[in-house]
Structure formats: structure tokens, C-alpha cells
Amino acid sequence: MKKIKQKVPVSFSYDVIFTEGLFDTNNELFAELIASASPEVARKVLFVLDEGMYEHHPQLFENIKEYARHFNDTFTLIEEPIVIPGGEAAKNDQSHVDEVHRAINEAGLDRHSYVAIIGGGAVIDTAGYAAATAHRGIRAIRIPTTVLAQNDAAVGVKNGINAFGKKNFLGTFLPPFAVINDSRFLSTLDQRDWRSGVSEAIKVALLKDAEFFSFIEENGEALDQRDGEAMDELIYRCAEFHLDHIANSGDPFEMGSSRPLDFGHWSAHKLEQLTDYELRHGEAVAIGICLDVTYSYLDGLITQNEWQRILETFKSCGFKLWVPELQKNAEHPESEDSIFSGLEEFREHLGGQLTIMLLDAIGKGKEVHEVNYELYREAIEKLKSYEQQLETQRA
Amino acid sequence: MKKIKQKVPVSFSYDVIFTEGLFDTNNELFAELIASASPEVARKVLFVLDEGMYEHHPQLFENIKEYARHFNDTFTLIEEPIVIPGGEAAKNDQSHVDEVHRAINEAGLDRHSYVAIIGGGAVIDTAGYAAATAHRGIRAIRIPTTVLAQNDAAVGVKNGINAFGKKNFLGTFLPPFAVINDSRFLSTLDQRDWRSGVSEAIKVALLKDAEFFSFIEENGEALDQRDGEAMDELIYRCAEFHLDHIANSGDPFEMGSSRPLDFGHWSAHKLEQLTDYELRHGEAVAIGICLDVTYSYLDGLITQNEWQRILETFKSCGFKLWVPELQKNAEHPESEDSIFSGLEEFREHLGGQLTIMLLDAIGKGKEVHEVNYELYREAIEKLKSYEQQLETQRA
Fold first, then answer.
1. For the CA atoms of chain A, what is the radius of gyration?
2. Which residue of B has its CA nearest to A38?
3. pLDDT tens string for chain A (395 positions)?
4. Hey, what domains does chain A have and what are their CATH numbers?
5. Bridge partner residues of A161 (DSSP)
6. How far is B111 from chain A (nearest CA, A)?
7. Using an 8 Å Cβ cutoff, are A359 and A368 in contact?
8. Which residues form the 3-dehydroquinate synthase N-terminal domain (chains A, B) (predicted)?
9. Does B36 touch chain A (CB under 8 A)?
């Protein structure tokens, strides 16, 4: 037996840029980004637009055309954008990936060309997966337009769509070419999309930084009332924590047993599915975190005061903390419509042993590998009654 | 404008192992490989078999089952293997990828489980693409069974299938978990598949190492007469050169302008397509290299003696050096059935500027960014007449 030990070090790098008015012709950022990195022959850019976002910004592609004319010596715009529907449900439909592949083929894009994706997390995931698999990876410029995408979904190294009823069953790890957060897109978000991303920021704060949690706690109502400055700060800091976690985990493509920042997500993924995607991802994450925080409290890991502060912060940001789907078939964990079946789906997706993140203190997570169903059922009850109490206080 | 500069270093490593009789129960290699790397819960292995290979080894899966029973404390065999057709043409059919995805889903594989792929390069590319995109990458163990796959296709970091009539339009860069070359599979190859892989070894020798070329030159007839020892040596050294090129290129995922070892490949890919995959990949590569070697000679880069030695080496290994498709519409490079349209397809797939590898000497390549169609047409004629001359000598 002979053996050759192969090592393949790969170094990815990308900028996450915060700007306003990306396609104003006096904003040179986008044109410079492209001019700096590609040979002239390849400076083609295909745009993929989120249908919902595009309805709120009907002039957007006209602006992009004007921008492209203004900078026509630095890049070539593919004249027809691809428009695909947003929202998690759209990730169940493989045909959107096929559509982006077809457009990449027809436009003759190559690995030094660009797919610029403007939209929410689902559209960025879907079109990002298509770009990652065409010619083994066309450069993706992600331009997220929701709070959730700007501070979480779009800054990382993953893409994907759902298949066989499983979240992100198809996808790859591939860093983007660049991420550009344009705060102007946030102003047209409906209240639910504005709010949704805040839960991921609370998640990061709970796991990583008590001071960041205090910032959100203090600004909960301001955020709910669409204070732009508070939101800019929240997005920047949340994105920064995420990027730091990816860069310094030692295992950014999760090949070993390292864990992504997925607190509250085992039940959140399942709740999205059980509510037929009526709950948006960030809304489901809020409930998922409140459940695991309540479980952590009942398990003696955090104090009553910590538990209350966290739930009240979610509430002040405008989140629901509980839905009836949490209790459906809770006595039958193996049943497909029981919230607890999400545990095995979660384990399968990450691979290896089950690992659930709980809370040891505000700012500090704790991993466990087993759960107590009885205690979880108690946590679901406790969460329900505490939410009712908070509702009564606010009424 | 604010900016976060993100760096994501990822370190992949895998072993390329040479063995004989992989699924003999006294060969612990496979079981140890799995036991060493996964938590117990995840030691599931799904096999994907190349239909053509399986016809030559009808007992193979029974052997694997016995092997799995023998090592049942180290891994769990998924009882139904997936069997998919081999050969480049099968890479045009997306349904084989879907089939592997379905099987991965049904078997509940996770990112710490394994897809073991036994077959030629096309099956390894196809099933490897499916594994790379399920759960963002299930571990692939490649067990190549042809010379071409053992010394070239299966040792590297790519996978993919064809789409829109373009070679490897869909695919990813993702290193395998391990590669295992079992020399026993080579004995049942038909003569064309035995021979096919030799052209990639000649390619590597021409670009990298004059001494390795001399080895092949001296062993051409022995190889054609199925000398196992010469073939083992050829495969090992060729795989070693490939692995070294990938590890030390500084850009293994070809994100910049670094080039894979693709000498002769712009026309080879096109010839496979123009002959409706009648030509196997290695056969097309032999012709493609002979064409670019002849062009290099006419362009004054190599001597007549070098040119003749190279063509004679290919001939002694049993290769055809010329096919009529080289001349079809040679006057109309832009025509889709002209060999020269392969230049633009090649440029598009690699991205950026056109780069063609020519030969500066035996053992030394030279990149050029422009070609002279007239000189190429002359090279096609020259190659045709020299092959006729060699045929006459051998008759």
C-alpha cells in the first residue's frame, strides 16, 4: 500500500461593505469593485432581483441601466434581469435555480463574471446556489435588502435551497465575491421584514456579548419604531460578530464538529415548515430562542431575571413568543408534525452527534447533546403563560 | 461607507491511497478510514456503482456486503447501491444527480456520512457533484476504476456534469474525503479504457518532467501490451504530479488566472462533443495534444525531433492521432461544428482571457493568449500526413 497525503489550502477573502444609494451615479463603489478584480473581457454582470423587493423599487433596474451606461467602460450589464420570488417557500422550487443557470449560460458568463443578487435571504440563497454551481462558481455579489439578510444570511459562506421537505438540503459552502449592504433598501420593508432580522442579532448577543444584548434591550422600542440609526448600528455589529465567528472558528465549512451560530434554530426551522412558511425565518427564530432560553431557565442554567429580560426584549421589539404549533403532537416526538422531530432533522443536516445550544448566561452559550422532552414540554407551557402575562401588561 | 475585510482560510486534506483488493476482508484499509474520522452515529456508507464496471464485476456488491458484515462495528452499509451509467455521455443527464440526491435523502445521510463511488471518471464526477451539493457536502470516497480516473480525473478537487451542451457547466470545487486506487479493477478494462488514461500521463510529462516522458516513451509498447508494473508506475507518478500541481498552484480552486493542467484540452473537449462521445476523453486528449504539439513545432517552439518523438510515443501506446472532425468547417472558426469554436467554449469555462498551453520543450509548457488559425489549419494537415506515414511504417 502506498499513500500520498494531499493538503489543499484555500484562502477566500471578501469585503462586506456598508453604503447608501449604491446605484446613484455619483457612487463609484460598485463600478470600482468590478474594475479592480477582472480582466476587461469578463466584466459582465447579470442581475437577479427579488420580486417583492422589485415591486417596492420599480425604478431599480432603470437606475442600474443608467449606472451601467455611466460606467460603461468598466462593466457590461446583461440587459435582462432575472426576477425570482422571495420568501422561504420559494426555496422549495428548484426551477428558480434552473432559471438562473439558463440565464448564466445564455449570457455567456464565465468564472470571472458576476451575478449580482438584490433581495432577501431566500433569493440570495437560491441565486447564490445557482452561481456557485455554474462553471464551478461564478462570482456572486450579494446585495441584501432585508435586515435579516444584511446582518446574517447574506454575510456568511453558505447558499442553498430546500429539497425533499428538508431545509437547505441542496447547497454549497462558497464565500461570495462581495457583500454590499445598502441601508436605503430597508426603508421600504414592511414591519415584519424590518423586525425579522432583529432576532438574529439578539441571538448573537446572547451567545457572544452581554453588552450588545444591553444595547438591543435599551433600543427595543426604538427599533420597533424604525429608528434608522439604531438599526444601522445593530446590523453592523451583528454582521461583525458573524464574520468573526466564521473567520475564527477554524472550520468555516463545518467539515468537523464545529457549530454554526444556530441557537434556537432546531425548532425555528421546524416551525417555518409547520406553519407553511406563514412565520418568517426571523419570527420563527425569535420563538425558537425564547423556547430554548426558557428551557435553559427551567434547567437551572440562567436566572429568572435573565430569562425575563430576554423575553421582554423580544416582546419590546414586537415579536410573538409562542405559536400553537409548539404543542402539536408534543407527546409524540417522533411524529413528523411534532416540533421535536426538528431535533433529528437538525442533527442530520449538521451531521454527527446531536448538539443543541443552550444559554449559560447572557453573553455565553452552552452546548448539550441530550434533551429532556418533559422539561421541553414544560418550557412550552411556561413560555405560553409568560407571553400572556406580558400581553396583559402591555394592553 | 464602512467596510469589513473578511478572510476565510480553509484547509482541506485527503489521502490518495494505492491498494489491491480493497474489499477483501483481510484488507482493513476501508474500515479503518471510516472508523478514524467519524462519530459512531454517522458511519453510514452509500455506494454508487458504475454500470459498465459493475457488469465486469458482478460479485462486487456481494463482496462489499460481506466486507460490511465483517466490519459491522465500524460502519453501516446502505443496503441498496445506486447504479448509474458511465461514459462522458451520461454526464449530459441531470437525472443521475437527482437519483443520488434522492438516495442520500432516503438513507438519511449527513455531512459526516459517506458516499463511496466506484467507477470511471464520469460516474465519479456525477455522483461527486451530487454528494458535494447534498447538505452542502457529504464526504465522498472516490474509488476510480479506470486508468484515466486513477491518474487524473479522480485525484483532483473538481466534480461536475454537462449542461446546455457545455462540458462541466454544472459543478463545484470540493476535495474528496479520500481517493482509493485499487489496481485490481484495471485488469477487466477493455483495451480502449486501459489506454485512455495514458494520454493524461503523457500530458503531465510533457509539461512537467522530461524524465517521466522518457519513461513512457520507453514503455509505450509494454503499456499497450498491458504490462501491469509499467502501468502502476505510470499511474502513481501521474497522480503525484497532479496532486503537486493542485497543492502548490496557490489557487487550487482557480479563482484567479491560474491554470489547470489542460494542455490539448480545448480541442479535446470539442472533439468529444463533435464525435458524439464516440471518442473517449483520453483518446480525444491524445489527438488534442498531438495537434497542439504540431502547432508548437510549426510555430518554431520545439524541434522536429521532439515533435516526432512525441507523436511516435502516442502511436506506440496505440492512440489515433487524427480524426476527420478536426477539419470540419475549419475555415469557419465561429461555426458551432468547427473545432475552433472549442477555443471560445474553453475560454468561457475557465474565465477571463483565452490561455492556451503550447510546448516550449519536452518537460516545459508555454502559455499563449492568441492563436493563428492559418497555422492551426496547417498543423491539422501536417498531423494527418504524419499519422499516415507512421501507419505505413507500422504496416
1. 21
2. B352
3. 899 999 999 999 999 999 999 999 999 999 999 988 866 665 899 999 999 999 999 999 999 999 999 999 899 999 999 999 998 888 999 999 999 999 999 999 988 899 999 999 999 999 999 999 999 999 999 999 999 999 998 999 999 999 998 889 999 999 999 999 999 999 999 999 999 999 999 999 999 999 999 999 999 999 999 999 999 999 999 999 999 999 998 889 988 766 778 899 999 999 999 999 999 999 999 999 999 999 999 999 999 999 999 999 999 999 999 999 999 999 999 999 999 999 988 888 777 788 999 999 999 999 999 999 999 999 999 999 999 999 998 87
4. 15-189 (3.40.50.1970), 192-394 (1.20.1090.10)
5. A170
6. 5
7. no
8. 82-195
9. no
Q: Which residues of B13-48 are buried (b: 16+ CB within 10 A; e: fewer)?
A: ebebbbbeebbeeebebbbebbeeebeeebbbbbbb
Amino acid letter, A25: T
- Total Cβ atoms within 10 A of residue B4: 19
**Size (chain B), residues:** 395
Scan for cell 476535495, then name that residue.
B175
Q: Which three cell numbers stand for residue B309?
A: 518523438
For B181, the grid coordinates are: 486506487
d(C-alpha A153, C-alpha B148), whole Å? 41
Nearest CB neighbour to A132, from listed B11, B157, B172: B172
Report which of B131, B144, B130, B142 is spatially closest to residue B53, judged by C-alpha positions: B144
B350 in reach of chain A (CB within 8 A): yes
Q: Which residue from B15, B108, B252 is facing A3, i.e. has the nearest CB?
A: B15
